[in-house]
Amino acid sequence: MAGRGDAYEKYFENFEDWRARGWRVSAADWRGQAGSGRLGADAVTGHVDDFALWVEDLGQFWRQWAPGRQGPLVLTGHSMGGHLVLRAAAEKALDPAPAALILSAPMLDVQPERVPLWLRGLIARVMSAIGDARRPAWKWSEQPGAMPASRQKLLTHDDARYADELWWRDERPELVMGPGSWGWVDGAMRSIGLLARRGVLESLDIPVFLFATRSDRLVGFHAVERAAKRLPRAETLYFGAEARHEILRETDAVRDRALAAIDAFLARVRDRARATA
């Protein structure tokens, strides 16, 4: 499950890596993103009234997808997708329960982390209430519809993989998404607060592999560290300046290290499933 503003087409290279290792891979876009329409007032602003809508959607998708599948069922999410995957599992919205989770740079907080969450949440609630909650919460580009020149510096060092995303956006214009709405920001703050409550993550008794980068300028790295310590069966892999937010779309040196760690994690998941079969 992809992140905010993402589309699953960006991850075909990763899907093929896992398929070649014997895994069957399915993916879907979140409602209101990519080819799944829009919930806001225009064609590019990402909006949602409440993240609970996406948790419910994921639970329904999982209940339809899971029956009859062979082998351990592993659910993977990147960024906002990682947040929602973790929340759905913690809230027991996934039936049957997945055998494991893999979270890529999960959005367990957003920048700037140094500003208290309660204050950021208050600002988002006020901004949503005083105008149309579907309006953009930040500026996208000096030229309407154009990609910000600095966007790649937030996502990846790899020019070719970044160009691949732009190719998909040119090929399928419906995938294009710009800033989030104030409603999205408000929903994100509230959902982050839910996962931060004592006992929520502590009750999730399945293996969870989290990988993130200390250089992330979008999601809060310290929140990932805190979550890993709270999860009973967490494994982690952390990067530094060599990696930006989209670790699975980074340079080969970074991406290969992440994939090797994921492979080792999945091998342990598979071995446990076979031992208990």
Overview of this structure, please?
By secondary structure, the protein is of the alpha/beta class. The protein has one domain: 3-Layer(aba) Sandwich (Rossmann fold). The chain is built from nine helices and four strands. The chain has helices spanning 12-20, 52-65, 80-90, 117-129, 152-155, 159-171, 182-196, 221-230, 252-276; strands at residues 74-78, 100-104, 208-213, 234-239. The protein has a four-stranded parallel β-sheet with strand order 1-2-3-4, sandwiched between helices. Helix 3 (80-90) links the parallel strand 1 and strand 2 (100-104). Helix 4 packs antiparallel against helix 7. The chain is globular and about 55 Å long. The mean pLDDT is 95.
Question: What string, H for helix and E for strand, traces the elements in order?
Answer: HHEHEHHHHEHEH
Structural class: alpha/beta
In CATH terms, the superfamily is Alpha/Beta hydrolase fold, catalytic domain
Strand % is 5-15%
Radius of gyration: 18 Å
DSSP summary, beta strand count: 4
CATH topology: Rossmann fold
Average pLDDT value?
Answer: 95
Number of domains: 1
The biggest sheet, with number of strands, parallel, antiparallel or mixed sense and barrel status, is: 4 strands, parallel
Strands ordered across the widest β-sheet: 1-2-3-4
Q: Helicity level, as a percent range?
A: 40-55%
Count of helical segments?
9
Distance between the termini: 27 Å
What is the name of the CATH architecture? 3-Layer(aba) Sandwich
The top level CATH class name: Alpha Beta
Shape: globular
Q: Low-confidence spans: pLDDT under 50, at least 5 residues?
A: none
